[in-house]
Amino acid sequence: MFKKILIANRGEIACRVIKTARKMGIQTVAVYSDADRNALHVQMADEAVHIGPPPANQSYIVIDKIMEAIRKTGAEAVHPGYGFLSENMNFAAALEKEGVVFIGPPSGAIEAMGDKITSKKLAQEAGVSTVPGYMGLIADADEAVKISDQIGYPVMIKASAGGGGKGMRIAWNAQEAREGFESSKNEAANSFGDDRIFIEKFVTQPRHIEIQVLADKHGNTVYLHERECSIQRRNQKVIEEAPSPFLDEATRKAMGEQACALARAVGYTSAGTVEFIVDGDRNFYFLEMNTRLQVEHPVTELITGVDLVEQMIRVAAGEKLPFAQADLKINGWAMESRLYAEDPYRNFLPSIGRLTRYRPPVEGKTDGGIVRNDTGVYEGGEISMYYDPMIAKLCTWGPTRADAIEEMRLALDTFEVEGIGHNLPFCSAVMDHPRFVSGAITTAFIAEEYPEGFAGAALDAALLRRVAAAAAAMNRVAEIRRTRISGTMDNHTRRVGDDWVVTVQDEAFAVAIAADPQGSTVTFEDGEQIRVESDWTPGQPLARMTVNGTPLVIKTGKIPMGFRMRLRGADLRVLVQSPRQKALSAHMLEKVAPDTSKFLLCPMPGLVVKISVEEGQEVQEGQALATVEAMKMENILKAERKGVVKKINASAGASLRVDDVIMEFE
């Protein structure tokens, strides 16, 4: 077994590999850029080597710098994680030449399957069903439009060397095909150093289901069942689960056997994933093979009990797989929510800054399940604009799908993140969405269910009452504390009343509170009683309660006459007032937000790639105005309505903050 391995990556996946290596008694070497000097993976590793400036194309994907770090530290093997150099044949070849073991597949398999165009051709030759498309190289935007017209819209424009949603666009017409080709080409060049693009038919109403395979160097190949990855936004996975709620045993077996056959055909070893598009009749089509560890591998580990990173290391060291296909059973259900530094209230645009608070839920066994959090950040650390926006992968396991979802609901409500915009509220809202709960999902779920973006979830009537009761009980605790302030004048003791009005989500609940040493019983006007028990004290940002015997966790903060409460994807302003205060508040004026309709504001911190219009130019609704790049993704900003450009305040190359004015309109 290896004594020392180098992890050619950063963030949560580097931390994940270090954990398993440490368990196996293997020393680890981290590499880091200027931006990652204080990163968690650097702190966790036994050694760390600086490899250059923040941009990945000057550090993490420069093969010579990684090779220099290997020579400097004497690492015997390299784990590439995912992204960066993980599917780079030249990197695998360079390691082989140096006599260093690549913890991954042979360079020939990377070449064959890592390139999406080549892999599709090989799959077709092997008799694997593939999606219709154009597999050749595409010269320019004009040719891309011509090919798209021939295939028929909608089409998927994809970077050949792509992954993680980078370099991917769906085009529904010729204009979108032209814009999508140019953006995909630029993103692919910046992220992978390879700007080749291909186009295929976009199958409507599809499910994205993938098969995890594992193969050793002794001819043994197995599949570890499937992962459902259909909850995606901009082709980037947000929530995954294993197994899929859609597959039957026959389809699962057929997909698994086909994935293994494809792996054998290219002499594959190590862990890899074969991705399929599955239609409503359970017909499946080969999409691509990722010759690396997938981001969402933890859900497979939770239902099989197999440590995939450990098996990758053991396979690379020449060991045989310790199990056969018949040994790999599905145990329970697992969910994964990807926590991204993206603001759901600003159309999921990237958010950077310092994590002023980062408190994930406690990992390990719960009353009926398991909580796991794979992360690469810490409280006080910074989220950089240079890399992928992922902060953490929160995973839960339960005996059934419903149990795993309930575990995830509680874990998400318990997860505290402050200082940046993030998608925790959105993940929470999905867990409560009836369509997700039923399992009737496709890759179009987010686009169909949130067509206008995400503005927060609305709680149902039953949960709303539980929140109102909790707020009333918490307010009573806060009021009692205020009456006990020392130094008050004699004979000025204030009595805390029993009658209150709780206003939440535009509903007012008149309640009466009866308190005892164990908690409070809150009685509503219609006679319903809700029991609230908690050890919460004012100032605690997380209120853990038992409401009518079931757990309720709320992120809470003080506001005048009430609380800001966040749970289940809702961000609530909850007022708790005496009946007299409630009556008087009806006469209060509300502040009106300023009108910004005549400005194009930068929606996220980023770099201006292009200004597409000129001063004095008339623009039409939907016309491209500017392109801003952030976290390796290009974002085209379009006109919301017809107008005339009055003034342009930014130019290509400018670095902007959130809400900086790019241009003004007449």
UniProtKB/TrEMBL annotation:
EC number, UniProt record: 6.4.1.3
Required cofactor names: biotin
One Pfam family of this chain: PCC_BT
InterPro entries in the record: ATP-grasp, BC-like_N, Biotin_BS, Biotin_carboxylase_complex, Biotin_carboxylation_dom, Biotin_COase_C, Biotin_lipoyl, CPAse_ATP-bd
Top-rank EC class of the record's enzyme: ligase
Keyword Nucleotide-binding carried by entry: yes
Protein's name in the database: propionyl-CoA carboxylase
Annotated organism of origin: Ruixingdingia sedimenti
Lineage per the UniProt record: Bacteria, Pseudomonadati, Pseudomonadota, Alphaproteobacteria, Rhodobacterales
